[in-house]
């Protein structure tokens, strides 16, 4: 067979192959354009309905993955590949990947539930078993929490959703719990009368509810007061430290003595029939030790 005959025989095959490849490329380009258009239209609809931005991202990603798989199967079918066996292979691969990435997929599903049920949102101050701080991002797989010491904790959504979540941003204010120890002999009612108006003057302490100052307990040192101002969560630590400073300043200005434990010393048993009390302990150098 000469060259001309070979070229004449191969030309129709090459032409058909080129047309097939060009058709596959066109199918891919048009398919990708339609997928992007569909995702864009869906995003606009969800935005118009004021759906959470993170949930929009979830839905768009799931739709994009599903449509791209359909596009790949369609292109393979166009080239004559048996798509039934390919679909079975893809399903098996999906099960294998799902088993290997069960934790990751669990975090993905947990993130969707966090967005839907909204136990917290971006900007909330929360406490979980894993971290405490302000939520800065709810991602596809993780939640980012900015801690009070200016760190960032990345927690899997599955761990957060499966744990107890304490959200301090749900209500308009938060209570600051402090205690004040009084010495024996100090009138607790006088201390309460001094602290209450002073607490109300601390910056960012709200007036309603008013600060609480009450007798909390009694111990070997004296009376313990509960000191509880209220403030917005964003001012918690400022009010916390200002309250400690105020307690020290108020008690110091009032001249209250420092709390101390009163110990009763009894004479020990007589030694060799003697009624003498035990000798006082001696400090280094022979001087009596101070009590």
Description:
Helix 1 runs antiparallel to helix 2. The chain is rod-shaped and about 130 Å long. The strands form 3 sheets. It has a 5-stranded antiparallel β-sheet. The chain folds into 3 domains: 3-100, Helix Hairpins, CATH 1.10.287.1260; 118-167, SH3 type barrels; 174-254, Alpha-Beta Plaits (2-Layer Sandwich). A hairpin with a 5-residue loop joins strand 3 and strand 4. The chain has 291 residues and is an alpha+beta fold. The chain has helices at residues 3-48, 53-78, 83-100, 102-117, 157-161, 188-200, 236-254; strands spanning 125-127, 132-138, 142-146, 152-156, 166-167, 174-175, 178-181, 212-219, 222-228, 230-231. Mean pLDDT is 81; it is low at 279-291. It has 7 helices and 10 strands.
> What does the radius of gyration come to?
37 Å
Count the domains: 3
What CATH architecture of the largest domain do you see?
A: Orthogonal Bundle
Order of helices and strands: HHHHEEEEHEEEHEEEH
Strand order of the largest sheet: 4-3-2-1-5
Q: Give the % helix.
A: 40-55%
**CATH T-level fold name of the largest domain:** Helix Hairpins
Q: Count every helix, treating DSSP H or I runs of 4 or more residues as helices.
A: 7
Number of strands: 10
Oligomer: single chain
CATH class of the largest domain: Mainly Alpha
Strand content: 15-25%
Give the rounded overall mean pLDDT: 81
Distance between the termini: 121 Å
Specify the structural class: alpha+beta
Could you name the ranges where pLDDT drops below 50 across 5 or more consecutive residues?
A: 279-291
* Outline type: rod-shaped
Largest beta-sheet characterization:
5 strands, antiparallel
């Amino acid at each position: 067979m000469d060259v001309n005959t070979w070229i004449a025989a191969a030309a129709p095959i090459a032409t058909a192959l080129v047309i097939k490849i060009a058709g596959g490329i066109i199918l891919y380009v048009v398919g990708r354009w339609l997928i992007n258009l569909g995702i864009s239209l869906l995003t606009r609809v969800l935005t118009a309905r004021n759906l959470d931005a993170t949930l929009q991202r979830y839905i768009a990603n799931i739709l994009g993955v599903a449509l791209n798989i359909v596009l790949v199967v369609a292109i393979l079918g166009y080239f004559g590949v048996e798509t039934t066996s390919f679909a079975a292979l893809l399903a098996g691969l999906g099960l294998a990947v799902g088993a290997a990435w069960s934790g990751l997929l669990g975090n993905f599903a947990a993130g969707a539930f966090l967005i839907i049920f909204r136990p917290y949102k971006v900007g909330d101050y929360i406490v979980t078993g894993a971290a405490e701080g302000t939520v800065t991002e709810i991602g596809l797989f993780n939640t980012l929490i900015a801690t009070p010491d200016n760190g960032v904790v990345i927690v899997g959504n599955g761990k957060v959703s499966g744990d107890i979540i304490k959200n301090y941003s749900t209500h308009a204010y938060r209570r600051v719990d402090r205690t004040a120890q009084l010495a024996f002999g100090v009138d607790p009612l006088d201390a309460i009368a001094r602290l209450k108006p002073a607490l109300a003057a601390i910056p960012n302490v709200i007036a309603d509810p008013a600060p609480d100052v009450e007798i909390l307990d009694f111990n070997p040192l004296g009376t313990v007061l509960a000191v509880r101002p209220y403030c917005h969560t964003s001012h918690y630590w400022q009010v916390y430290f200002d309250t400690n400073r105020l307690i020290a300043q108020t008690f110091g200005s009032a001249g209250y003595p420092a709390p101390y434990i009163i110990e009763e010393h009894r004479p020990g048993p007589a030694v060799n029939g003697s009624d003498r009390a035990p000798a006082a302990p001696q400090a280094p150098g022979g001087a009596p030790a101070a009590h």
